Fold each of these.
Amino acid sequence: MPKSILAVNAGSSSVKITFYTFENPPRTIADAAISGITAPPPTLKYQQGDKKHKEEVKEKLNTPQDAFKYLLQRCFSDPDLSEVASVDDVEYICHRVVHGGDYRDAVEINDETLDRLKGLEDLAPLHNFSALEIVRLCKVELPKVKSITFFDSAFHQTIPEAVRTYPINQEIAKANGLRKYGFHGISYSFILRSVAQFLNKPIEKTNLIVMHIGSGASICAIKDGKSVDTSMGLTPLAGLPGATRSGSIDPSLVFHYTNEAGKLSPGSTSEMHISTAEDILNKQSGWKALTGTTDFSLIAVENPPSKAHKLAFDIFVDRIQGYIGSYYVKLNGELDGVVFAGGIGEKSALLRRALIDKCQCLGLAIDNVANDKGPEDEETVKDISKGSSKGPRVLVCQTNEQVCCFEMAYHCACSRS
Ligand SMILES: Nc1ncnc2c1ncn2[C@@H]1O[C@H](COP(=O)(O)OP(=O)(O)O)[C@@H](O)[C@H]1O
Ligand SMILES: CC(=O)OP(=O)(O)O
Ligand SMILES: [Mg+2]
């Protein structure tokens, strides 16, 4: 029986795993995810063949490693899942890691690379910590399986110097790696490839403005198939607001917020050096601070339940509109399409309509019926532009970070054998 490849996407509040057959083209064997680790009880979503279900998890899962172990066990013990009955059936584990510093490519994990990645943990403690804890766990508990890490930041290594450099003391900036990195790159490369194919254009001639908007939200300007700017920065906090993140604010706000802000947060461990300010801006801001909910589907409604919900919606539209205007100019108006992706981008017709209405001056227009319908389950890219529109296409892309990790691992494996 061919071995499988396991792709892992660990977030601060969720862990998703997918098993694929190690063959070309790959076939999904099973998909499992735990969400709500930080807001118990956690929920399990499991899909294997036609079997699909969702359940509340009774066990206590305090960390992403607990969730990962639970998911593995759940898959290995499923009598219908004979293709992955134990670790012996796994050839590679591909881990999505948000911050890869200066790494341009995927990295195979060994003592040296793991040490280098540890050095990056402070730059994205909220994201990298959980992913690397799972990498470490795999190294100890599944020592025979090769782990490869794929970085969200790698796609943005093409961002020009004047865009990625912060105007601060450059010696300090270089010594501490303080620059714009940008994230969601695994998703952007999947979207770029899918959209270029949909538009029947070579990737290296494709110009797009892509939004990956979910609980974490960012936007990217792609020129000739390369990232030339993105809204996230040194960390995933910069740019657009999100479920619990403030997005860009005046940095001085930190010093006026509370006098506790600069101290280590009570949630900080000896390995996660998070200040109260980082904790507030990353975990206690965004939709949660404005409305009490982190669920944008309760905010993006025709009749918002409160003024605060309406304000949260309007803030999001305003910030995205600002980036679209700026990126349109950066791309010299030579734009093939504007693409919506991520949980909100793929599911909220209301957000798409409100935003495109505000960008009409760029020639963007949508077909309301196509927009309301959104993409079908198996439809990766859907065109929702108004038929008569001569402007750039408006598209929805159902992104898939897991499959992208798999494809890269497959590519690495093929090029080595
Ligand atoms: N119909 C909808 N309308 C608006 N927002 C939605 C809808 N469905 C899901 N969402 C939002 O999508 C978010 C999840 O997006 P996703 O990209 O999956 O998140 P993550 O950043 O955790 O990977 C949810 O928090 C929810 O707010
Ligand atoms: C980079 C980032 O913000 O990731 P996520 O949206 O999964 O939190
Ligand atoms: Mg995500």
Amino acid sequence: MVQSSILGFPRMGVNRDLKKATEAYWAGKISQADLLAEAKRLRLEHWNIQKKAGVDVIPSNDFALYDQVLHQIQDFGAAPPKYTSHGLNPVDEYFAMGRGHQKNGIDVPSLEMVKWFDSNYHYVKPTLQDNQEFKLTANPKAVSDFEEAKAAGIITRPVLIGPVSFLHLGKADRDQTVQPIDLLEKLIPVYVELLTKLKAAGAETVQIDEPTLVYDLPAKTKAAFKPAYEKFAALGDKIPKIVFATYFGDIVHNIEVLPKDVYAVHVDLVRNPEQLDTVISALGSKTVLSAGVVDGRNIWKTNLKRAIETVETAIQNLGKDRVIVATSSSLLHTPHTLASEKKLDPEIADWFSFACEKAVEVSVIAKAVTEGPASVREQLEANAKSIQSRATSKRTNDPAVKTRQSKITPDMYNRRSEFPTRIAEQQRTLGLPLFPTTTIGSFPQTKEIRIQRNKFTKGEITAGEYEKFIEKEIQDVVKIQEELDLDVYVHGEPERNDMVQYFGERLDGYAFTTHAWVQSYGSRCVRPPIVVGDISRPAPMTVKESKYAVSISKKPMKGMLTGPITCLRWSFPRDDVHQSVQAEQLALALRDEVVDLEAAGVYVIQVDEPALREGLPLRAGKEREAYLKWAVESFRLSVSGVKDSTQIHSHFCYSEFQDFFHAIAALDADVLSIENSKSDAKLLKVFVDEVYPRHIGPGVYDIHSPRVPSEQEIKDRIDEMLVYLKPEQLWINPDCGLKTRQWAETKAALINMVNAAKFYRQKYASTK
Ligand SMILES: CN1c2c(nc(N)[nH]c2=O)NC[C@@H]1CNc1ccc(C(=O)N[C@@H](CCC(=O)N[C@@H](CCC(=O)N[C@@H](CCC(=O)O)C(=O)O)C(=O)O)C(=O)O)cc1
Ligand SMILES: N[C@@H](CCS)C(=O)O
Ligand SMILES: [Zn+2]
């Protein structure tokens, strides 16, 4: 019998129940016991959904209160000392690492949080010490979750991040020099102990995720797989059978380190179906293949016929007993259920499949290959109809968009003059001081803003009333920025539910949902709009609000847009048209918006591209260069329609741009703001080495945490930056937008930031 399996299930719940519970706990509105009870209810509900869908192998320990890597950090005794010395209870210590803690005399910032591979999910980075020791906690979550499911009558497959990936995805703490992979020998005993405990609890199999195998790995990391997995193999049946799981790419380039002695190997056959043959021939003689044929990263209905063909190929090579049907990755990256979408056009809804529906898909595929297609004829026929409907629908194709794309000329990618001419012109018209201060666009999205928007969406208030409300919000943030004495204002983005969804809702070619939430980090979720057809802009999207903001501001007002790559990456993209085509369509739509903003008197325009980095193919090489070429071109196409005097900003919430700095430079943005507060300022050296002449605002404080940075801390950051950047290049801004923050902490942090900027402005006054 061919089994069906899922690598991980979304944990938020059908109505973002986990988000609501954690935020209520943080706000002191519910007790810790209430929070843990809600988490338990959700786990049970999700296991039962999968069981009901007919999934044979159901995961456990895929659930997390904030992040799954963070649970492992804590359970392995790898919480950095600054979190463990305050006597916080384990749950609060866990949240302190995730989001910082500033209460009752304790003041610790959060650990660094970064993108999980090329997804829009963020994990907490293991942050390790030179004298790091690991010690398994008395009651590891992997074991208690397994036992919880078992008590409910479900024998699950616990999920762990593998030792090599855990270390490779980690880093040395500030001022520490340890190379995480060198800690492998110390870490393995903790895995051995945990695996032994899982076996004792009754776990027959365990899923050990080693997704780093899809990367180009340093020799030392590559070499680490062998000793680790040999050690596990030597334990025989003292530990559960291991499913060695990789996803988000192919493993062909690392195939020689694939362990032979594991029970099963999982590969992503949605992203890289072509790796099937190589992987099959590299498997140990008894190893099972877990074939990831149902997409864990997108919402399109699986083409069941095609998936069955792939699984059949594997069966022909390995036999039915050595193949498992699986999702390509965890379903964490997909929304909970399509059943919640009451407003979607039925024609379009028929093309989608969310987590609950994907659970049914894996089980149908497994049944089809076990018992024959006749056993699931009805499902296969309905599926073929949906696939055909999408392939032939008129809604996917807009000839006017294609015509416009065919008329793009080379000059449309270039600003009129080079940067020195432009900046001189901009300095003349904008008149900004040294160390200009600004923010990244959004100000706190208060409960009141969300309530009013919700009322407007439900028709409980009129468009006029909502517009008045938004204008009042803009007035308030302009006034606050005046009081703070910032230099370049923003309108605060109060009208935006999200920086991508907002644009998706205003563009033709997109569908959007009411409940399709996906976890982004911690309790934060996004509702990615879905690209269903050719994209165009039927009307201006942001001009009204920006124009109003300009009209009430005494200082330059930045217009805020989300760039083409970010719109694309944080949407669910089409899988029937190359992403470069979709990005170009978005770029043309945004180009019109940029030109319209300038015509409306907005002379500083920021086009955010935080997702440019995550779109980078995971391995270096030709594919990466090709991506960067079309990504950079899309950005340039979107911003190059303006005069020299209009200042183009771009923003990136990551600092790891060393490996593609040439692309960042090629964007030719006049000012870049980048996340930097939690990274080593040494990373800025690349700007010196590459003789980068344009302006840069490396973030001076972290916005993911409610913690208020002191003026001195900010000055220290600026000092570090000035080692690498010239004073006349440097802008002073936070790491990213402030939408997730409360007003009190926002004002307090910005007061400190502006004071720090003024200090340096005075210090360097004579050099201007
Ligand atoms: C910058 N980031 C973003 C990423 N991806 C995006 N698509 N957008 C981003 O901004 N990726 C990288 C980072 C990740 N960071 C974040 C930061 C913040 C959030 C976030 O705040 N998410 C919100 C949801 C935002 C939203 O869509 N809000 C809507 C709906 C609000 C809502 O819940 N309404 C209630 C009713 C009102 C009420 O009673 O409160 C409801 O519908 O039930 C809106 O504002 O209208 C979050 O809360 O998680 C995400 C990623
Ligand atoms: N302008 C956006 C950028 C987030 S990456 C904001 O400020 O929220
Ligand atoms: Zn950002």
